[in-house]
Amino acid sequence: EVYFKNLSKQKQKEVMEKNGNNHKLRVCVATCNRADYSKLAPIMFGIKAETQFFELDVVVLGSHLIDDYGNTYRMIEQDDFDIHTRLHTIVRGEDEAAMVESVGLALVKLPDVLNRLKPDIMIVHGDRFDALALATSAALMNIRILHIEGGEVSGTIDDSIRHAITKLAHYHVCCTRSAEQHLIAMCEDHDRILLAGCPSYDKLLSAKNKDYMSIIRMWLGEDVKTRDYIVALQHPVTTDIKHSIKMFELTLDALISFNKRTLVLFPNVDAGDKEMVRVMRKKGIEHHPNFRAVKHVPFDQFIQLVAHAGCMIGNSSCGVREVGAFGTPVINLGTRQTGRETGENVLHVRDADTQDKILHALQLQFGKQYPCSKIYGDGNAVPRILKFLKSIDLKEPLQKKFCFPPVKDNISQDIDHILETQSALAVDLGGTNLRVAIVSMKGEIVKKYTQLNPKTYEDRLALILKMCVEAASEAVNVNCRILGVGISTGGRVNPREGIVLHSTKLIQEWSSVDLRTPISDALHLPVWVDNDGNCAALAERKFGHGKGVENFVTLITGTGIGGGIVHQHELIHGSSFCAAELGHIVVSLDGPECLCGSQGCIEAYASGIALQREAKKLHDDDLLLVEGMSMKKEEVVSAAHLIQAAKLGNTKAESILRTAGTALGLGVVNILHTVNPSLVILSGVLANHYVNAVKDVINRQALSSVKTVDVVVSNLADPALLGAASLVLDYTTRRIY
Fold it and tell me: Which residues 6+ apart lie within 8 Å of 21 measured at CB?
């Protein structure tokens, strides 16, 4: 680190010698509006503090000097900057022509100012039409231009202006890695690009702990609490003024209906801004008890307001950039910021064409707290920018060099996908059947497909792929967006890799099988795989009795005995993915043999296979059938016959079921003494037959401290499919819900 610091000092010394030992870099900073000043001010403070290197000239123009927009040049004076020149450049008007005339007026006035100042470099920010006039003037007068926030992608005419300024600029300070890549792809010289982060983050990241309640009360009233108000900031979209005004009207309607205290800031100076103000006044926003309408809020105070808001709504770049530093929920309306990189706190409403859609977005976002995002900066942009300025060699030619690298794409979240039925493809691999279903977010099985489970690995995998492809195609017809594929299968599963390590004897040729790769490759969707017992527990956590319960256990009583353990809201897999093999808890040292090779397991007593075995023994001894029962000659004896016989008074059948229930109950007692859940859920076809027996054993055998546990029967019709679906839905929707 010392070496590189010394190297940097040596380079700066060499640059000073090249530029002339006594020559300070004369920097002109031109600011046009309240938004760009919030980014330029930290740089201006840095330049002002290093008088041995720099001379600062400040030029103010644009909406800073207009009363309708708050005369924001005053905050520059309050920051103790000397304004060298004030240029009135805004031509009053309400259409696109007024913006063109404003650019023209600025181009007429700027040459005289630049001739007088003779700056070495001009710092220009962003994508406003005023900034385009500044960059054009400086470029034509051979003044070097440093452009802040180039390379970003948003929407409307701003993109075109920003990229036009990029082509005029000689040096570039960008905020994100993607913006840097975009600049390189636009043929800019990599050596003249600095990835510094956003200068405003230098102030943002040190602001949140300051006293804020007095600021909130000043702007929103004495009775307002943190996280219980909204900040609204919406600007006209110059490429579609009529639609943006309609969207603003719908936004105000939604905010009125939402009935929360709201701070509404006036729009910036663009074609259509006057019409938006008329919409506000037509709806009585300035006199509505829930609203406070203001022309301008000082940036330091604005930071505190958005940091502690319940939500920010609108289409300002501030919402998708600065607000992420606080994790405040943001609703971005329309296309003005399309393409911007965003944190997970931002929900896009691309087509804000109905009040209900905007209201739905408010219901989704208001009051949440997201992780803080530092996509746009780490709080150290200004030192990097000052160092970059010091490295500029004024004797280098102005001519730019070019290169042609690739461009990265950016994908962002859209509310149309949320309003579409978010769904999962759920796959259940049973011993007999293979089932695939489209399952909605609410746990509704929209469509289900069932086939016999093939005996060989190749046939089974081919059938899974075929059924999943058919279901994914059908999802489009039933208005479902498939988020991923969840697979529930018997045996031991490595869910991290999506591999079945080895399966039960009921599913042949199903060991060391990679399910994730072929299915993901075929469907181009993420794939999750887990054991069927774990999936049953996940189904209960999302859709059943386990919803909101911190610690619970699910026991599946079917052909075999399985289960899943949820501890502190998380599923337990164990160090070798063998946790919750509850069917193989040993309850007797010399009990019947289990399919696992051991003796006395719960499964050897209480599973469907165990009951079928005992039923066959009784049938072979002519002790199964009682009055009221009959069996066809070719009919296979099953557990159902044993249960029927017990109901009809067969004492031997009753004794077998009682033993099975006791074995299951003892297993549950062991579970209670080991993980101490507050809830036990019995699932599967035999659950109703065992629930009372399990409760009795707990009352007799369990420690008094765990006897209060609730034991219930699952109310889910299809826990395997629902659990497979929850593998997908719990993960893929986490950034929304």
Answer: none
Q: Looking at residue 418, what is its pLDDT?
A: 52
Beta strands in 522-635 (DSSP E): 527-531, 552-557, 561-567, 570-571
| β-bridge pairing 445-452 and 480-489 | unpaired
Whole-number Å distance between alpha carbons of 226 and 309: 6
Burial code (b: 16+ CB inside 10 Å, e: under 16) for 222-256 equals eebeeebbbbbbbbbbbbbbebbbebbbbbbebbb
- Asked whether residue 492 is marked as a ligand-binding residue, the answer is yes
Name the amino acid, one letter, at 2. Answer: V
Segment among 256-265, 318-327, 333-342 with least mean pLDDT? 333-342
The verdict on whether residue 573 carries a ligand-binding annotation is no
Mean pLDDT across 584-592: 92
Distances (CA, A) of 501 to 215, 497, 508, 530: 59, 10, 13, 11
Q: How many CA atoms lie within 13 A of 162 on its CB side?
A: 23
Question: In 504-598, which residue ranges form alpha helices assigned H by DSSP?
Answer: 516-523, 532-543
- DSSP labels, 384-411: HHHHHHHT--TTS-SPPP----------
277's enclosing H/E stretch is helix 273-282
**DSSP character at residue 170:** S
- Any idea what the Cα angle at residue 194 is, between residues 182 and 85, rounded to 5°? 105
- Among candidate residues 463, 465, 468, the one with its CA nearest the CA of residue 452: 463
Q: Average pLDDT for residues 582-597, to the nearest whole number?
A: 90
Q: Are 248 and 278 in contact (CB under 8 A)?
A: no
| pLDDT digits 0-9 by tens, 423-468 | 999 999 877 789 999 999 889 999 999 999 888 888 888 999 999 9
Catalytic residue among 57, 130, 273, 532: 532
pLDDT band at 735 (very low <50, low <70, confident <90, very high): very low
> Rounded to an integer, what distance in angstroms lies between the CA atom of residue 58 and that of residue 45?
12
pLDDT tier at 414 (50, 70, 90 boundaries)?
low
The full length of the chain comes to 737
Respond yes or no: is residue 82 known to be catalytic. Answer: no
- What is the three-class DSSP state of 111? helix
pLDDT of residue 272: 84
- On whether 603 is known to bind a ligand per the annotation, the reply is yes
Indicate the pTM of the whole model.
Answer: 0.52
Q: What percent of the chain has pLDDT over 70?
A: 92
In the chain, what is the greatest distance between 2 CA atoms, to the nearest angstrom?
A: 115
User: Which pLDDT score, from 0 to 100, does residue 229 have?
Assistant: 96
As a whole number, the mean pLDDT across the chain is 88
* Closest among 135, 122, 125 to 164, alpha carbons compared: 135
The type of residue at 602 is I
Q: Yes or no: say if 499 and 517 are a contact pair by the CB < 8 Å rule.
A: no
Contact 75, 99 (CB under 8 A): no
Distance of alpha carbon 534 from alpha carbon 532, whole angstroms: 5
**Has 594 been labeled as part of a binding site?**
yes
**Relative orientation angle of helices 381-390 and 2-19, to the nearest 10 degrees:** 40
Q: Which two tokens stand for residue 551?
A: 């610690």
Structure letter (DSSP) for residue 593: B
The predicted pLDDT at position 158 comes to: 84
